[in-house]
Amino acid sequence: MILILGLFSSVFAAIYHYDRKQRFSGWLAIAYASGLAAFLVDVNRSLFDTALVDMIAKAFFWGFSIALVAGVFSRHEAKVPSALIWVVVGLGSIALFWFGWIEPNIVWRSISSSITAGVILTIALPLLWQKRKGVLHHTFFVLFALLCATYFLRPLIVYGLLGAIHTPESYGSSIYAALLYGSSVLCGLTCGVTMIIMAGSDIIRKHQLASTIDPLTGIMNRRGLEKFVSTKIDTSDTTNNTTNTSIIMVDLDRFKGINDDFGHDVGDQVLKRTASIISTITSQLGIVARIGGEEFAIVLNVSDEADSIVVAQHLRLSLAAIEYAEIGCNRKVTGSFGVAMIGNGESFRAATHRADLALYQAKAAGRNCVREAQPSTANGLIKPITHAADLTAGNVRELSDNCIPFPKRNAG
To answer: For burial by CB atoms within 10 Å, which of 76, 115, 125, 322 has the most?
Structure first.
């Protein structure tokens, strides 16, 4: 028991030391350390005043339950119900004090202590039930529920069904103590192993997420967009029957001048505000990614190209309306937009290349405007947008698969 509790406490402490933001592991380290302290005090109760040692052991015992519940809530980023926990602890403390000094009774002290710990653990069950996702979470819920059940079943079996009675002197060799230690080892081992796996999966998922999220703006980065496309849209470079997906390429105009005139900190604020505006406007329509310094890609789920143009114009006007105190009210940050609808049989890569060419045309036309990518014709690929009614339909020609999905540009 000492080895198991000490080992799990050390493992969770090491995980927390590796990633201080994973408070889940920190709470579990405290939980198993409290369990270890409770066990050490409990087995040495004969060396000290029995009632006092029993109270101390129960305090560490409850500390295990409290820290375990706090860890569960922390992992799911939920607020720990501290008030409820302390109410339960307060009632349990009153019972311990009563059966410790007012009417000393070691049996009722054991019953009230076990029930108090069980009630504390039960507080986390609704959250675990709500957050069940996959085999691992279902397994942990079952194990946690069994752990809660042992705290209620143990006194019922020992004192109710078996009618066992023990004194402070005979506690160490009693059926209750044996059942307590045995069930604690079993539950501590199974729950501990499961929670170590969960902590490890959290770290892996965090690193995977970090590789696909832009740290400055909090939206997808280039890798995240490519992963999204490969799993949700494009299964190959040559076959795509999607007809309700469009791509909008956005590039902030003359952004280099903002960095040069006001510094990169101000430039970062502009990028974060831009990402926030675009994400808010398109939150119900698709996804947004930052794929370059000041360049963004938007993948929309819309019925036709006219809808994409409306969204792009909305975004353009919204960006131009933002005022930045850092650069003065007379200076605006605008964006140029290129829009392309993915055609039948066209790859995401080819459609993105057409949207990017439209973006180049928007830059050449004076910036702060929207251009639609046209299918290949004798008159060229791009035409300017003046009104939604001017949109024309045509067969989309897929470009060479050698086109890179997101070409980098030096233009502002």
So the answer is: 115
Q: What is the 3-state secondary structure (H, E, C) of 222-280?
A: HHHHHHHHHHHHCCCCCCCCCCCEEEEEEEECCHHHHHHHHCHHHHHHHHHHHHHHHHH
Residue 20 half-sphere exposure, CB side, CA atoms within 13 Å?
Answer: 0
Whether 226 and 335 have beta carbons less than 8 Å apart is answered as: no
- With b for 16 or more beta-carbon neighbours within 10 A and e for fewer, the 347-377 pattern comes to bbbbbbbbbbbbbbbbbeeebbbbbbbbbee
Distance CA 323, CA 63 (A): 52
Residue 294's DSSP bridge partners are none
Q: Across the strands, what pairs with 299?
A: 247, 287
Confirm if 337 and 316 have CB atoms less than 8 A apart. yes
Q: Does residue 192 surpass a pLDDT of 90?
A: no
Write the pLDDT tens digit of every residue in 236-283: 444 444 458 899 999 999 999 999 999 999 999 999 999 999 999 998
Angle at 276 between CA 272 and CA 281, to 5 degrees: 155
Distance (Å, whole) CA 258 – CA 270: 9
Name the residue among 220, 214, 356, 213 with its Cα closest to residue 288: 220
Q: How far apart are CA 328 and CA 332, in angstroms?
A: 8
- CA dihedral sign of residues 318, 319, 321, 324: positive
Please answer whether residues 323 and 269 qualify as being in contact, where contact means their C-beta atoms are separated by less than 8 angstroms: no
Ordered strands of the 370-377 beta sheet: 286-290, 295-301, 245-252, 335-341, 370-377, 380-384
C-alpha pair distances (Å), 125 with each of 120, 132, 160, 381: 10, 11, 26, 60
**Amino acid, res. 51:** A
Q: CA 347, 352, 354, 355 torsion: positive or negative?
A: positive
Which two three-digit tokens encode residue 408?
Answer: 């980098």
φ/ψ of residue 380, rounded to 5: 115, 180
Which residue is associated with the tokens 């143990």? 154
Q: Point out which residues pair with 247 in neighbouring strands.
A: 299, 340
Inter-residue contact 46 to 174 (CB < 8 Å): no
Instruction: Find residue 337's DSSP bridge partners.
Output: 250, 370
Instruction: Give Cβ neighbours of residue 233 (< 8 Å, ≥ 6 apart).
Output: 240, 242, 245, 299, 342, 348
Report percent pLDDT > 70 for the chain: 83
The CA-atom distances, in angstroms, between 79 and each of 64, 69, 75, 292, 301 are: 18, 11, 10, 37, 35
Say what the pTM is.
0.62
